[in-house]
Amino acid sequence: MPVIQIEELSKLYGFGDATTVALDDVSLSIEKGEFIAVMGPSGSGKTTLMNILGLLDKPTHGAYRLNGKDVSKLTKNKRAKVRRDNIGFIFQSFNMLSKLSVIENVALPLAYKGMGQTKRLKTADRVLNQVGLSDRDSYLPSQLSGGQLQRAAIARALVNNPSIIIADEPTGNLDSVSARVVMELLSDVHKLGNTVIMVTHNPSLTRYADRIIYMLDGTIVYDEASAVGEIPTRVQRAITALRKSDDDEKLANVSAIMETIPELDGKQGPKEKRKALKKARKNAKKKRKTKKD
Questions:
Q1: What pLDDT, on the 0 to 100 scale, is given for residue 239?
Q2: Same domain for 182 and 254?
Q3: Boundary of a domain, candidates 229, 248, 276
Q4: Domains in the chain: how many in total?
C-alpha cells in the first residue's frame, strides 16, 4: 500500500475570470521509503503540491490518501494532528524562533504533543547529537551559520519521529560545502527507511533521489526512476543545453527543456546533438514567450 496516493487532484485560487489553476488533475503514488526530487520552474505547482501533501492546504478537487486514509477533507484541527504525527518539514528559510535556543526550537514540536519539558529537551538533545549539533544546543539561531541552522531544522523535523520528510529547497540558502553536509544528512534519514520528498531547482541534487518528478503548468510532465548517486541522462542533457544561459534563466527553464528536449538515440554525432540541443533551447524560449503573451 502506498504511503501517499493522490488521484485527479486539483487546486484552484480565486474566482470567475481571476481563477488560477495551481494544480490540474494531478495523480501520484509514493511508496514508503522513496526519495523523490520534485523539479520545475516557478509557478509549476511544486509548492502547492508540497503544501497539500504536507496537509498545510486542502485540494479543491480530488482524493488524497495518507497511509490508506482519506485526508483530503479533514478539518483544520484534524489535519494538524495527522501532520504532527506523520510529517516533518524542512524549509529553505529555516523558520527558527529567534528568541529560543537551538534545543528549545528543536523540542518545540514535542510540546504540541503534550510531552513534559524534561523529556522534550532530552529527546531534542539526542536528535541534535545525530546531526552533529549537541555542542550548539544552548546557542540562539543568530549565533549559528546557515549550514548549522539547516542541520538544526533537520533535527526539528526528525524529533517527532515522522515517517515522511518534506524538504522545500533545503539547500537554497547554503554554500556548496554546507549544502553537501545537509544533503548527506537527508540521505542518511532516507536510509533509515523514511520517505523523503524534496523540492529543488538544483539539478545536481537529483543524484540523491531514486525518483525524479518534473512539473510544468500545474501538471506532472515526467516521472522517472533514477539510480541513487547518478544524475539522470535527461537532467544532464538539460544542464548542457542551458550551460550558456544566465543563472536565472537556467533555474527557471530546466524542466521546460527536459519536456521538449528530444530523446537522442546515441547514434547521432556531435554536430547532430548540438543541433538538437539548440532546437530544444529555441522551443523552450518560444514556449516561455507564448506563456507571457
A1: 61
A2: no
A3: 229
A4: 2
Do 237 and 221 belong together in one domain? no
- What pLDDT, on the 0 to 100 scale, is given for residue 86? 94
- Domain-terminating residue out of 196, 229, 262: 229
> Looking at the structure, do residues 182 and 91 belong to the same domain, yes or no?
yes
The continuous run of DSSP H or E covering 271 comes out as: helix 270-292
CB contact burial 145-182 (16+ within 10 A = b; e otherwise)? eebbbbbbbbbbbbbbebbbbbbbbbbebbeeebbebb
Q: Could you give the CA distance from residue 66 to residue 58 in angstroms, rounded to a whole number?
A: 13
> For 104-134, how does the pLDDT look when each residue is reduced to its tens digit (9 = 90+)?
999 999 988 889 999 999 999 999 999 999 9
Which 8-state DSSP code applies to residue 80?
A: H
Is the domain of 129 the same as that of 246? no
Cα gap 234→238, rounded to integer Å: 6
State the chain's mean pLDDT as an integer.
83
271-281 mean pLDDT: 51
Q: Are 9 and 64 in contact (CB under 8 A)?
A: yes
Question: Positive or negative, the Cα torsion across 219, 49, 249, 209?
Answer: negative
Map residue 223 onto helix, strand or coil. Answer: strand
Q: Are 143 and 91 in contact (CB under 8 A)?
A: no
Q: Per-residue pLDDT tens for 204-229? A: 898 999 999 999 899 998 898 888 87
Domain span holding position 273: 231-293
Largest Cα separation within the chain, whole Å, is 67
